[in-house]
Amino acid sequence: MSRSHTSRSHRAVGRFKVASWSETLVTDIDGEGTTAGEAYFPKRGVTRTDNAYTYTGDIEGSSEVAYLIAYKPDAAPVLGMERFHGSIGGHEGSCVFQHIGSQDQGSVSGRLEVVPGMGTGGLEELRGEAELSIAGHSDEGYEIELHYDV
């Protein structure tokens, strides 16, 4: 059972920016959707993304993440796994974050949790979580506040 972020002993605040984003179709339920650039977004279906993020602030580094994103008219699930390399609160190493959330047109909300047993270096024993709430696109990146123990 995960601990509430209020019981964590440390807090790291940072921003992350999308360094790259590649999205491909997994399944299209109705054969209806829209195309933006080279990407196709089904009205109802699932896509897979391969992305990279950069982090600044108390969380400094970069990551690779793969998402499975469902599309439907209302809130739809988003699942992801992210490998982070860098430092959190001055602790150097790498770790894996699990993303569980939902998205609709223009917004994403979710929870990010450190996957125990997948850290290296100073992040080997990292435990923690963050709540994410993103509305629309931002060239300035998105805030993240990680509550953690090492």
Can you tell me about this structure?
- The protein has 150 residues and is mainly β.
- The chain has a single domain (5-22, 53-62, 72-149), classed as Beta Barrel (AOC barrel-like), CATH 2.40.350.
- Helices cover 0% and strands 71% of the residues.
- It contains no helices and eleven strands.
- The chain has strands spanning 10-28, 33-36, 39-42, 45-57, 59-71, 76-88, 91-104, 107-114, 120-121, 127-135, 142-149.
- The strands form two sheets. Strands 1-4-5-6-7-8-10-11 form an eight-stranded antiparallel beta barrel. A two-stranded antiparallel ribbon has the order 2-3.
- Strand 2 (33-36) and strand 3 form a beta hairpin.
- The radius of gyration is 16 Å and the shape is elongated.
Features of the shown structure:
150 residues; mainly beta; AOC barrel-like; two-stranded antiparallel sheet; 71% strand; elongated
